[in-house]
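[job 0417] fold request received: Cell division control protein 14
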Amino acid sequence: MESLLSLSFDYLSSNDGIKIRKGLRQIESLLAQICLSRSPSSTAAAADRRHSVIGNGATNGSPKQSTKELSSLKDDPAFREFFKLQEGFEWNIATRLVLTLERLLSHPQTGAHDLLLVSTLDTLHGMLLLHPPSRTLFAREIYMNLLLDLLEPTNCPAIQSSALLTLVTALLGAPRNVRCFEAVDGLLAVTSLLKGRETGREVKMRTVEFLYFYLMPETPQGVSGNGVNGGLQSPSKRLNGGGSPAHSREAETRTTEDKQALLGRHLSNVEDLVEDLRESAVFGANLV
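[job 0417] inference complete; emitting structure tokens
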């Protein structure tokens, strides 16, 4: 795994778009191997063959693959090895992807360049889900500003949409990151995108979805109702009973009412968003 990551990182550090694409594909392939499992039983293989005959299609000889449940990954040996590697700076994929984004932003904009940015954002999005501790990168203003730069009107809609999705993942379960987002005028950047005349309908929908997410009440860092953060802790941290005191300090958390007041400085109809959030229970919200 280390040799594959080393080669991928070499490609990502290049200024050649073809090499960057190759590095991204190698990382995507590694993540796919970790997250997908092949059907082991002959019964399943036979069912696939029957399905292909009924559907008049071909299976091309490849065993069926299914997505593993996120909650089960922590018990998978390959994932545990991968997670341990991500705990150190040398092999941390999210760090390399952020540096790749930073470098790509300095390049002239072309169609191929835009595709690279979207692909890098999508891979980063997946990495932040698989390794929640990597989200701490976005407690730093320099990296939070990097995501906000990708929301600028000069970027294409595909980049803006991918940046919004990645931003959600960067803030998920991380109050420190949300405070950083607020401190660097993230709310102004997002609401400006929403109100912009040149902003397309799909991007505006993504923006509204982001605002619904932002308005959700927060829980202290490390406390998660869905068990994902706790279940996917580093094996070494679980064995030692948690992280260091520096990591266990809770960041300031805010309620929906707190956030409504902040967002109201930039948007006039925040009350409608909150009411809709209450009525529709978006993201399973419980604001009562």
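[job 0417] notes: The CA atoms of residues 47 and 53 lie 10 Å apart. Residues 38-64, 223-249 have pLDDT under 50 and may be disordered.
[job 0417] exit 0
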